[in-house]
Write a structure and sequence with these properties.
Elements: H1 12-15, E1 27-32, E2 38-40, H2 59-77, H3 83-98, H4 102-112, H5 119-129, H6 133-144, H7 151-170, H8 174-185, H9 192-200, H10 207-214, H11 221-232, H12 245-260, E3 291-296, E4 303-308, E5 314-319, E6 324-329, E7 336-342, E8 351-354, E9 360-364, E10 372-376, E11 381-386, E12 396-399, E13 405-409, E14 415-419, E15 424-427, E16 433-438, E17 444-449, E18 453-458, E19 463-469, E20 474-479, E21 485-490, E22 494-499, E23 504-509, E24 522-524, E25 530-533, E26 540-544, E27 552-554, E28 561-566, E29 574-578, E30 583-587, H13 594-601
Antiparallel strand pairs: 1-2, 3-30, 4-5, 5-6, 6-7, 8-9, 9-10, 10-11, 12-13, 13-14, 14-15, 16-17, 17-18, 18-19, 20-21, 21-22, 22-23, 24-25, 25-26, 26-27, 28-29, 29-30
Helix pairs in contact: 3-4, 5-6, 6-7, 7-8, 7-11
Length: 609
Amino acid sequence: MQANGAGQGQESSELSCINSAQNGESSTATGTHSNGLISSTDNGNNVGTSNGSSTGPSSGTLTASTASGSEASSLKKKKRLSQADEDVIRLIGQHLRGLGLNQTVDLLMQESGCRLEHPSATKFRNHVMEGEWEKAENDLNELRALMHSPNAIVRMKFLLLQQKYLEYLEDGKVLEALQVLRGELTPLKYNTDRIHVLSGYLMCSHAEDLRAKAEWEGKGTASRCRLLDKLQTYLPPSVMLPPRRLQTLLRQAVELQRDRCLYHNTKLDSSLDSVSLLIDHVCSRKQFPCYTHQILTEHCNEVWFCKFSNDGTKLATGSKDTTVIIWQVDLESHQLKLLRTLEGHAYGVSYLAWSPDDTYLIACGPDDCSELWLWNVQTGELRTKMSQSHEDSLTSVAWNPDGKRFVTGGQRGQFYQCDLDGNLLDSWEGVRVQCLWCLSDGRTVLASDTHQRIRGYNFEDLTDRNIVQEDHPIMSFTVSKNGRLALLNVATQGVHLWDLQDRVLVRKYQGVTQGFYTIHSCFGGHNEDFIASGSEDHKVYIWHRRGELPIAELTGHTRTINCVSWNPAIPGLMASASDDGTVRIWGPAPFLDSQEADGLSENCSKMDS
């Protein structure tokens, strides 16, 4: 990446490095220029410094002259810096100057023969920081020839005059500020809306009121530095580097490494202080939830569903044994303990849905179940047992974001919207529902049906539209938190990722064995960067959302894994429910010795980037 790829031309020799050796000049310590270069001797003649006059020829002078000639000769032989080297030196110089190491910057520029920025830019910077606005405006005329966009001068002048106007107002010089507004800003005929806003500041009674309304730091170094940052965006980088360019490049490099890390599952911190720049970013597979932390064996039959609460403090599991078990999650140890058991679901429990505030839990049964149960999780009491008809099949449910309504349906053509007491609010006839989801707008309900599609239904204006069309039955689906992506488990095909906004298939994930069993997959991890799914081959598969190949295959279950749930509050905690009657809790590897750690890593498949 070349930081100064723009603004080159006749000024390029001034804007990059100046090799004084090519002119046969030898540098001495007689003076320092504004660009950091040390003044050189005149035509190769030595200049004495003992009394300010030239000395005559002598042995000492001859020796110095010989040494000077030798130094000049060696400088001529020095390899000219490449463009990339020049850019790096300028970036380092800018960073050091920001740290206040000005003498070090001068020495770096002297030794390298580089110029940090164009002399006109240096003069412009100084005038802005000193508040010499007329001189800064004159500097713009010098910079005009170095700029690509003629309109940039007008914008820069507007920013200068705006700062000048605000500083006059803060100092109580209302007449001077009014003159700037009427005589200098308005004639620019630029951003008239902003000028109207600026004119309103004339009514401010005191400086604090002005700073608050203008969202301005006030006269001084802070506001002028902010102004300079804005002004620099209009100048080519060969003239003046963009603000804090080295930090920007380093931050981009860190973010790119994190994005490419297959197992990065912690909160992103944009601060460079949180990472080491001396080593590449890498997350170990052992930090990822691919190790069995706990096996829950309290169910006595197949476990069909599991779901963490929205706050991550509880886990609900539903089983063929007719019970729902609520587990309490210890947020420190990540261990689960049985909180309460909800009984009486005669057909078993194949689907569970937490209310948005985690107060209630709805349980649904398999295809031949015409009832659903709405439980108060905090008290363990059954609030509602709903059944519209014994011929119904209520196998799926989804909460409205307001927490006061829910939708439910099944494959026999029922599709209802109800309140918390089970009262029917709306119904949609003839929709054979396989799975449901309510979008965050509170109006749209997504429903997969027996026509291998997902349609959007609006209960307010009674409209519907096609969103996803597959070639095979959609056994289940879930939607990302932002409502943009849908994760489908498709019969005989596996796991598919769809973009609901663009209505396109984004990715097909490989490895999972999916027949005609209903398997529920999930998004998970920080920023929902990962996808997990059960499989009929008794494994849990985990993918990075951007890659089709699994980054981990978790073994331990002995029969089909029906459901996987990722804890929304603890990115390193995941649960899986299986026909083997157990629920496994997955987390990072504990502290193991090297041999055990090596053995653990074999349980997680590799995926080379």
